[in-house]
């Protein structure tokens, strides 16, 4: 009996013989950090802000891309995409993984794509936010569209797989646990059932605990109800775990003051989600706008263009991080008109903001 056999646990038959049987499926393996060419700091939480390893404040300012499945299908999943995003000045890319695409392609396919994303992002000193891109009620399994259908078990397994795969990889900086929880809320029914707040906290905390069993350096990012807009319940009952960041999706039509002015919109944001930045780090992981009648115009993203300057002023004042939706010519509100990367109105604005404020 060789050393390997001696160390095998009782009942562990994996790799006992060569072959293609299920018992020869390899055990999960972590990403090899030796493949990274650039030294990047682990971004951490200190009080209400993100900090680098020297303790200096750090703000994520970047953008969303489409799901890797879409980009591969269109021939756009390549290093040159990340290079172009670097030219735009982004220091973070949010990558949405849709449950339907996860099941279609399988875990190993996504590992291969996300391994590439980590290597490419690291080369350009860009961080990644990984987003489980579901919209709906995961407890009752009621969702806005079939592409978002998932389950508690699938969600937990996804995060267990990711936490093991990318543990201690600084480029993979943030895990957004659930994109947009959308349930009956504040007396308004939307056909997606309800979740008690204590149950939502239990969902978040159990996934945080699971992730930290593998990786205690990655930052968990959690959202509130109303399509990740309303953080007010966290004021009385925040996540009962340390070093957690909060997500918001404050699209322009979400704030509805009686008189629409900058002061009133700032006040509305303060009341519903921005107040969290007084005590915790906050990332607005989806922002953006398009003019009425423009490509992809729909509620809640329609705006006359005043949203961009207002939001970035607010973010700078509050110390907020942000990611624009979306660096893709098909999904709206889009930042680019085409794969020649011609900027849209919001694309040109946020490109200038990233280039001005991010240190590369």
From TrEMBL:
GO biological process: cellulose catabolic process
Official protein name in the record: Cellulase family glycosylhydrolase
Keywords annotated in UniProt: Carbohydrate metabolism, Cellulose degradation, Glycosidase, Hydrolase, Polysaccharide degradation
Pfam family, one: Cellulase
Gene3D superfamilies: Glycosidases
One of the record's GO cellular component terms: cell surface
Domain Glycoside hydrolase family: 51-328
SUPFAM superfamilies in the record: (Trans)glycosidases
InterPro entries: GH, Glyco_hydro_5, Glycosyl_hydrolase_5
The keyword Hydrolase belongs to this UniProt entry's keyword annotation: yes
UniProt similarity note: Belongs to the glycosyl hydrolase 5 (cellulase A) family.
Gene Ontology MF: a single term: beta-glucosidase activity
């Amino acid at each position: 009996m060789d050393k390997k056999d001696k160390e095998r646990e009782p009942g562990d038959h994996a790799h006992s013989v060569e072959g293609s049987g299920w018992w020869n499926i390899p055990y999960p393996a972590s990403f090899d950090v030796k493949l990274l060419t650039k030294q990047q700091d682990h971004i951490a939480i200190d009080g209400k802000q993100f900090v680098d390893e020297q303790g200096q404040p750090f703000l994520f300012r970047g953008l969303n891309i489409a799901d890797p499945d879409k980009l591969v299908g269109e021939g756009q999943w390549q290093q040159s995409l990340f290079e172009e995003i670097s030219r735009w000045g982004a220091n973070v890319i949010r990558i949405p993984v849709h449950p339907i695409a996860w099941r279609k392609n399988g875990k190993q396919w996504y590992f291969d794509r996300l391994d590439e994303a980590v290597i490419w992002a690291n080369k350009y000193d860009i961080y990644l936010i990984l987003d489980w891109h579901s919209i709906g009620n995961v407890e009752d399994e009621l969702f806005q569209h079939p592409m978002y259908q998932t389950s508690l078990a699938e969600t937990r397994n996804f995060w267990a797989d990711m936490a093991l795969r990318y543990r201690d990889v600084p480029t993979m900086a943030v895990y957004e646990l659930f994109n947009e929880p959308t349930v009956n809320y504040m007396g308004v029914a939307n056909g997606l059932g309800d979740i008690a707040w204590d149950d939502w906290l239990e969902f978040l905390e159990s996934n945080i605990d699971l992730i930290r069993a593998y990786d205690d350096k990655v930052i968990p990012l959690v959202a509130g109800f109303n399509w990740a807009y309303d953080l007010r319940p966290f004021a009385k009952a925040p996540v009962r775990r340390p070093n957690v960041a909060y997500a918001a999706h404050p699209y322009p039509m979400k704030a509805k003051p009686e008189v629409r002015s900058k002061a009133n919109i700032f006040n509305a944001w303060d009341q519903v989600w921005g107040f969290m930045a007084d005590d915790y780090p906050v990332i607005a992981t989806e922002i953006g706008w398009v003019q009425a009648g423009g490509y992809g115009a729909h509620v809640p993203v329609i705006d006359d263009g005043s949203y961009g300057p207002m939001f970035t002023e607010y973010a700078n004042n509050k110390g907020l991080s942000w990611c624009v939706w979306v660096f893709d010519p098909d999904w709206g509100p889009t930042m680019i008109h085409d794969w020649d990367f011609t900027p849209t109105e919001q694309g040109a604005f946020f490109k200038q903001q990233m280039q001005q404020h991010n240190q590369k």
